[in-house]
Amino acid sequence: MTEAPAALIGVDWGSSNVRAYLMTGGGTILDAIASADGVATVAPGAFAATFRRLVGGWLDQWPALPVLASGMVGSRNGWREAPYVPCPADARAIAADLLAVEAAGRRVLIVPGLSCESEDGQPDVMRGEEVEILGIATQGARLVVLPGSHCKWVAVDEEEIARFQTFVTGELFAALRDHTLIGAFARTAPMGAPGEAFARGVLRGASAAQGADGSGLIGALFGARSLPLTGKLAEADAGDYLSGLLIGAEIVEARRRFPRENPQVAGASALAQRYLAAFAVLGERASAAPPGAAARGLLVVARQAGLL
What we know:
- By secondary structure, this protein is an alpha/beta fold.
- The chain has two domains: 6-139 and 291-304, Nucleotidyltransferase, domain 5 (2-Layer Sandwich); 169-288, Nucleotidyltransferase, domain 5, CATH 3.30.420.310.
- The protein is 37% helix and 23% strand.
- Helix 6 packs parallel to helix 9 (238-255).
- The protein starts with 5 loop residues before the first strand and ends with a helix.
């Protein structure tokens, strides 16, 4: 059987890493490149040269292929700042606001981010996750959770991104562990697979977020220090306990706005497994999102933009 021809170069360019895909019009990945040349590592004015270094072989071999890039490459600190499309938004609305830049005579189209507003008027934004969500939505997801430094909870309505909310759980965990007294035990503790200490933290965090025991999360956080200090938690388990505490609180808080659907969890395997374990501890059904979401989402946007 003859292999389908290349039809798209898709680039998922985040803060820390970049992944590029050479794809057919049907979504088959013919080749892929992964690099640590994330946006945070690229000097101002060097994006075109970095792009050329990463995918120059593809550009030379297929000089007419469209190029689509998503992620923090379109941020204020990226190649050029792309706009935010307000939610609700589907792939057609996102594709209508692509931003064009030039690299060695080739046009590169940058996918815009998304914005929305909570009921109390607080603005929220995402950049890069929207493409992943579009890729997951093609598989029928209605609620997507994307763990990370800034975890996103996203409601999907028939492949339209209806609304979302950001929780700074990952960044808060890193800040508490690395820069506070209550994180001192967690700082030296190994992080293993989620186990008993993690589950204990999830239940305590959920209870605190519900106000069930008369105190909230701010008071419960001191347990990450006081429990190992008094021998009621092994020092080696302090990191898992703190992780569970924050994730458990996040789930309860998020469920106030996203109460019904069973979530699909996407993202780095180890972190996604923590969230799946936390949902299980709380008696909720959750599943892992299918892999390859970013590549599928780039293809969805490319089709809506008439690039294929």
